[in-house]
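Re: [help] complex structure
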Amino acid sequence: MTDITNQTQAALAAIAAATSLNALEAQRLDTLGKKGWVSLALKTLGGMSPEQRAAAAPAIQTARADIAAALDARKAALETAELEARLARETIDLTLPAAPAPRGSVHPVSQVMDELAEIFADLGFAVATGPEIEDDWHNFTALNMDETHPARAMHDTFYFPDKSGDGKDILLRTHTSPVQIRSMLAQGAPIRLIAPGRVYRSDSDATHTPMFHQVEGLVVGRDIHLGHLKWTLETFFKAFFEREDIVLRLRPSYFPFTEPSVEVDVGYSTEGGRRVVGGHGDAPGHAWMELGGSGMVNRRVLEFAGIDPDEYQGFAFGLGIDRIAMLKYGMNDLRAFFDGDPRWLQHYGFSPFDQPTLAAGVGAKA
Amino acid sequence: MKFSLTWLKDHLETTGTVAEICDALNAIGLEVEGVEDPADKLAGFRVAHVLTAARHPDADKLQVLTVDTGEGDPLQVVCGAPNARAGMKGVLGLPGAVVPANGMVLRKSAIRGVESNGMMCSVRELELGEDHDGIIELPDDAPVGASFADYHGADPVIEVAVTPNRPDCMGVYGIARDLAAKGLGTLKPIAIPAFAERGDCPVEIRTDDPEGCPAFYGRVITGVTNGTSPDWLQARLKSAGQRPISLLVDLTNYLMLGFGRPAHIYDLAKLSGAVVARRARAGEQVLALNEKTYTLDDSMVVIADDAQVHDVAGIMGGEDSGVSETTTDVLLEIAYFDPVRIGATGRKLGLASDARIRFERGVDPDFLDDGLDLLTGLIVELAGGTPTETVRAGSPPSAAKVIAFDPGLTLRLGGVDVDEGEQRRILERLGFTVSAGWPKNPKVTCPLRRHDIEGAADLVEEVVRIHGLDTVASVPLPRTEGVARPTATPQQKLERGLRRAAAASGLNEAITWSFLPEWAAEHFAAEGEALWVLANPISEDLKAMRPSLLPGLLIAAKRNADRGAPGSRLFEIGRRYFRAQDGLSDEKPTLGIVLAGEKTPRGWKTGKAQSFDAFDAKALALELLEAAGAPTANLMVMGDAGAQFHPGQSGTLRLGPKTVLARFGMVHPATLKAFDVDGPIAAVELFLDAIPAKKGAAFARAQFTPPALQAVTRDFAFLVPATLAAGDLVRAVQGADKAAITAVRVFDVFAGAGVPEGHKSLAIEVTLQPGETSFKDAELKAIAEKVIAAAAKLGGELRG
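Output below.
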């Protein structure tokens, strides 16, 4: 009996002292292995009488259970220690930088064009396009500017030396208005559209570039009048700038393609050196700023575009896209729009996920 | 148009303030571009009384004055003017006032040790004239302490932008007429000074070109004295920004600026024979008043005598017959020229003038006789002389336009309900006459000066602009029922989607010029392709329309590199400009990408900075084509990306052998050199017009049917000729058993040790998808044999 107790104590001490899984395995073989003394002791029980077995068995069984438990506990402890050591070895310096993922951007002009499309789609306007290399009939004549019209000379037109097959002058469109003509000729009336795009004038200084962007709006119906024009522009600007305090001032003006013709001003104030649209232009600290031209489509233009002016009438307007983009998003240099400087594009550009929607608000906040 | 308030009030009886007048001008379409009120500049300057004047203790030329400013104790002021003396009245600028001439802010200061509390001012310092000999001396009755601006009667100057359709407002009188119609006051009749005509005009006047010059009226005045204009005349011209020259010249300018009526005065002594309006003879020359010589052609109208051309009709007079100080006898010319011809002549000669702008827009055909009499009367009154009777050659247009007008149109077109009586009053105040029967379908007769009125819509504009555009109420456009319908076209959706896909891939959207330097456009033009090149470019750098989006992006990338940017990942969606059959343009929507400089910067993990390679370009091309809905699985990679690309590192993506959807690859070193930019640079161009529209209009996707059994993979390595394209092997293997093989992937390419010269090893992983039942060994073996056979056809040999 004492032998087994002593042997057990010695084995438990050796198990506790094992510092590796290999050493522990040696202890297991020594004790519980096929040739281990515990296993051998258990085998002796078979040759004993029931009385002898009843006397000897409990001690041997206890020794086996104690040693098995000690082996398991020691194994778990050694494994934990080994894992900890491995984890310590695997530690890395996470203050090191991760691989940069390039961030792309959408140009403000494109973003604003998408905003325009979204707002005007709600008002039932489609988006129309047309060629930028135009003939003088679509760019001028059909817009009631015949060859001798003084306004033609005021357009700073870029010309090509070429002529069209039917002898017309070829030029870069000076405005998006020829799209009106093309759309009316193609679709007839009634019609509601906007036509955003590039336009060209041979003009270049701090605030003018020889290429810029305009959006044309056109509505023709049976009883469209100046009041509809005013509402449309007000409604658009309120939606575009996302503020209710937009005040428009309409002033009589002159464009050959509209009659009556109306210049559109918007009230603004200056905050922190920037123009902020909103409020009445005559209110203290406020002023008016020209935003674009508009008017009721001239009868002659409707005639040129194949629409009966006794049956249909409508309005048209034109706005500078770059300009309203600058007003909304705070750019101050038009020339930078066309420079392709990644710093500028990242600064003023938009996330691809800023898709304008009416539900989220068409504008993207800084 | 600039004019002073005083000038306006010559013609308009009004109590309106400057602010009210400006509001009214804006409201009726005469846009106020600016108001210059001299009172603003003269703030802080006062009428002051010099009480004492003593020598400055330390300076010979300075005096120390005590000055009464009308309030408080007299101030001590140091003054250097020789005319400063006790008892005089002058103008004192107080500390804080800004001297108009030089912007200097006055301060309390010490001058050579003596305190000075302001400055006594000269005429020049206050920008009231050129005199700088001494300080201003005011009359004894000038009220001490009064604001000098008030005392001086500073006259605000208003500048308005007159739209090209309103030549009748290119004179102060016309503006007064519009304001009176708006209700800002009463229009005064034109005061023509009385004069007595004596005898016939001794000069024969003719128009030999009744089309170009329908009317030419004239009159001689003998015995005039051409001196300096009186102050009132000088003041008015100066307010318009005109420099007074001499009385006779100033009076023609006054007629033009005040009444919109150009006229010309010839020195009679310098004329010989009949004075005739005729066409110029080709090559004829004239020395104009601007001292430039113009060579004329036979489309231009001139005024000539027997000896020479004196006048580019309606545009500019000649130097040789202009008036001078010694002129005593003059011939006055008032004519009516065809506006179109004046405009054409002016454009051809590149000659602009105040007269041209009025004639080409159309002067008042009804103001020849009155204009001539007004000019005559003023000359006789101010320069003396004896006028002859008027001689008239031809006659101006006299048929007034008559328009059938329904006053109801004002509401239907203008959207504002204006009382019929009010409409009539507005039209009549503007000089229109309304026939009997108003308001039932009346006829409205237009004044001849209103060349801009063509139809009823123009009359609506007149009524609405005078009644007030601000009275037009906003009326909502009729809305279709329910939620707004989608309006975007497939092309628009394609472009919008691609734009955001490209940005999501880390590219920055740029917008570059549609026009390029000609060499850059030429470099990217296809063989034999004729570019669109501007006849009148604004600069050589913006001259030829782009045949590709890449040159503009390359130029931008170069600019960025020159600025020290580590790299550029730019894309642009825009048009390439080609020629269509009919001589018009063929503009193709395109997406261009340029990847320049560093792809990844130098890093602790990746080592050296890495640049872009052709596979970056390929990946973007495929990713974006996928986003565009193109069937990317069916695309073939072929060559012929273009001469601007590295011939061995570029390709095209095609749908069938002919339809090129994109080109991609590394930019050719010669192109980099031409654009003076460092490489390597990768580029992509997507031809959006070639991408087929997505098929299948329904929202519902095809059913999802994942295979019931798991796929198995088998690896093969083949020795193939080095020139074999991996894509060809992949396609051949894919075709070996279309039912079973669902994917083939190259996972290793190797040449070198162990691989015979002229060969390479391509290792592929073939994915086999069982159908209803798992593959049996024999089936797998059969498929493997088919794969090996397919490779063998391309010269591939299975490696052991």
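The mean pLDDT of chain B is 92.
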